[in-house]
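Re-run with default settings, no changes from the original entry. Doing this only to confirm the output is reproducible before filing.
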Amino acid sequence: MALDLNDPELEFADLVSAYQSWVMAVINDEKLGGEPLLSDEIVDDALNAMRFLPDVVTSAVETTLARVYDVDADELAGLLYPED
């Protein structure tokens, strides 16, 4: 279900969860070789969530998931934000 930014019930945790889902999907698809999880909806939700999440929160999510899935933090940053 797509993130509805106009929903009065939307909580900070929903934004963190949307961002976390995107990071986990990228790790899964690019590093773990599992069944592809990344979808346009996940990407859109993460981009919307990033507009409202402080940098320290997104950084904490990235650092934590990089450690959990044994991915180098710099490599993860390159996967999430590739330089075109």
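The chain has one domain: 12-80. The helical segments are 12-32, 40-50, 55-68, 73-80.
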